[in-house]
Amino acid sequence: SVLAAFWDHLRRLGLQDFPCGLGSWNKSRFNAHRSPRRGQPGLGPKPARQEEAVLLDEESPGALMELLSDRHSPWALPPDCSPQDQHLREMAVLAPELVHGSNIFQVFRSLRITGKGVEEVDKGLLQFQQLEELILSANQISRITSANLPRTLKVLELCCNAVGDLQDLCTQPPPELQHLGLGYNRLCGPLQDKYLTADFWPNLVSLDLSFNNFTDLLGLVSQLSSLQKLRILVLQGNPLALIPTYRGFLVDSLPKLSILDDIHVGPDERRQFHGLARQPELMRSEARVVVSVGEIKGVPDPRTLQQLEVGSEAPVITYSYCVTYEF
Fold first, then answer.
1. pLDDT above 50 (res 42)
2. pTM of the predicted model as reported, rounded to 2 decimal places
3. How far apart are CA 93 and CA 61, in angstroms?
4. How far apart are CA 209 and CA 212, in angstroms?
5. I need a surface site. Which of 47, 72, 163, 191 has the fewest CB within 10 A?
6. Which residues lie across from 133 on neighbouring strands?
């Protein structure tokens, strides 16, 4: 589940271990400054006075932070770690009570869990009451229940998963969501088209449906046209993108689009395709694909036959090949 992957990741960060967390290396900065509620440790003295309060057998905040930032330090994070991880480690030095226990859920505005084999988006996510961005790319999620998503979400990225049905996601979706990323999944039209309307996503600005299996361009556009705030749309990689009038039809049908398939939609392009949306008869249900074979490996070189001596009685060998294209 997402929450299990989250706790596993935190354990790897060592937020409660030296030089982070609370311990003998910084106890004087926090033990004497308790919060009046529930006995939680407070923030301690102001940063300007922290150095003065350090005892001889303790480490200063600056020294502890240096252990995190120095790339030669055994406590430094790998160079490819996320800014979020680095921020959590620094917070665990300067204000360790904020990343202890359930307090940590209030710290996150953005949560990124990618490539962790996550299959379930569990209700534990509801503990992130301030969460605005949730990135769950490159996992194994096939279904996602909207009731388990924080209502504060503005960005939901599910790229490279196995989502094939949007019904559960659209039962009670986050009302303020502005970006929905569903690229590289298993969505098929027209069954899923009905879930891509303003009834479910009234504030959607950006939508990524790339590399799925949408085939009905007319049906999809009729649903997307209700998204009045939609400005960015990605549909490349779907079969419908092979239709000759694909881009022109979308540009004219969705006049508020600013970017289509990562390409800016300019005034000249709008004038060029003006009126195409009123001519659906130009939409053909077929596409032409040109396949060019540039190189073939593992095939015997026929030029070796020319090395035989003239008049030799060597047998003549004939090769035949079959190339199959599967669409």
1. no
2. 0.73
3. 7
4. 7
5. 72
6. 110, 155
